[in-house]
Design brief:
- The protein is α/β, with parallel strands linked by helices and 296 residues long.
- It has 2 domains: 208 residues, Rossmann fold, CATH 3.40.50; 63 residues, Alpha-Beta Plaits (2-Layer Sandwich), CATH 3.30.70.
- 26% of the residues lie in helices and 29% in strands.
- The chain has 8 helices and 14 strands.
- The protein has a 6-stranded mixed β-sheet, with helices on both faces. A 4-stranded antiparallel β-sheet has the order 2-1-4-5, with helices on one face.
- The longest helix is centred in the middle third of the chain and has 14 residues.
- The chain is globular.
- The two termini are 38 Å apart.
- The chain binds adenosine-5'-diphosphate.
- Adenosine-5'-diphosphate (ADP) binds next to strand 2 and helix 1.
- The site of adenosine-5'-diphosphate has 11 residues, from strand 2 and helix 1.
Length: 296
């Protein structure tokens, strides 16, 4: 595993080696929400935790974050139980899907407030998330997207080993979402990032690994590139009529839609069409290979 190049906390401890969940069940009172989840994560990367609403993603994050006590099983960071070790919990940070910062403080004062408690550098965060213009605004006066940026800023006050981010790009406009994803992609070269989403497209864009949760159970854990799909649908837009060149295709919303068994076929189709005189303006994948996970 790659050595980490920096730590700004007390300097104690080593590079994180693993997050290990063993038969973890947890919930609220008698309502068990996640059931016997076992996972072993040993490489810095982005792990997208994907699942429909209500699947148990937030509950899983709260359990890993040491907020909820597992009703059975254990969550260990480098062999130390996260629920019982304050030291181990200092190595992680959790971004809730609810934005929660002190409403009446200015952005800078709120960041400074947390930096004073948890350690870290509020100035650095203003630059990292492009928050200088919002510095003196009250948190309560910000838009949803701005609030999200500030909340994300909070998790970057201090260096951590494991970042638990619950839907970090919900309610954020596409430009900011992209900025946030770029920061996280860079971060994940050295750090462990768990990123929950219910968006299939986002999962493919950002994730290296996929953890699929459904009805509180772990359904899949592997590299996203190993997700197999049965068929791909590809839409082709052309300035001229290509219906005769693609007799099998159906015209849908201006796209000639063809079904292929492998993405490799797409290059051949495009090549053949261009050779035959098609004036192509767009080719796009219409289905997401993760789609089938969401089907009953
Ligand atoms: P997701 O993040 O995948 O949308 P959650 O973990 O938030 O899923 O929710 C899973 C289930 O747990 C839901 O049925 C929800 O009603 C229940 N749940 C979530 N939070 C609480 C809570 N604080 N108290 C009781 N039940 C809860």
């Amino acid at each position: 595993m790659k050595a980490h190049s920096y730590r700004v906390d007390e300097g104690e401890g080593d590079t994180m080696q693993s997050l290990e969940l063993t038969e973890v069940s947890a919930g609220y009172g008698r309502n068990e929400v996640i059931h016997g989840i076992s996972l072993s994560i040993i490489e810095p990367s982005i792990y997208v935790v994907l699942g429909p609403n209500g699947a148990g993603k937030t509950t899983l994050f709260r359990t890993i974050g040491g907020i909820l006590k597992p009703s059975s099983g254990q969550v260990k960071l480098d062999d130390v139980d996260l629920f019982y070790s304050k030291e181990a919990r200092k190595r992680i940070t959790y971004l809730s899907h609810l934005n929660a910062l002190p409403e009446e403080m200015t952005v800078f004062n709120a960041l400074k407030y947390y930096a004073d408690i948890e350690g870290g550098d509020a100035e650095h965060v203003l630059d990292l998330l492009n928050l200088r213009d919002l510095k003196d605004k009250k948190y309560t006066s910000l838009s949803q997207g701005q609030k999200k940026r500030v909340s994300i800023g909070k998790i970057f006050l201090r260096d951590r080993d494991l970042y638990l981010l619950d839907e970090p790009t919900s309610n954020v406009d596409p430009k900011i979402s992209k900025e946030i994803r770029d920061i996280l992609i860079k971060l994940s070269k050295e750090k462990f990032v768990l990123y929950s989403s219910h968006n299939l497209y986002e999962a493919r864009e950002i994730g290296t690994y996929l953890i699929l949760i459904k009805n509180g159970e772990l359904k899949f854990f592997d590299k996203i590139e190993n997700v197999k799909t049965k068929q791909y649908r590809v839409g082709v837009k052309s300035l001229n009529d290509i219906s005769k060149l693609l007799p099998e295709s159906k015209l849908d919303n201006g796209y000639y839609v063809v079904t292929v068994d492998s993405p490799k076929m797409v290059a051949k189709i495009i090549n053949d069409l261009v050779q035959a005189g098609a004036e192509l303006v767009e080719v796009r994948e219409l289905d997401n290979p993760l789609q089938e996970f969401f089907e009953e």
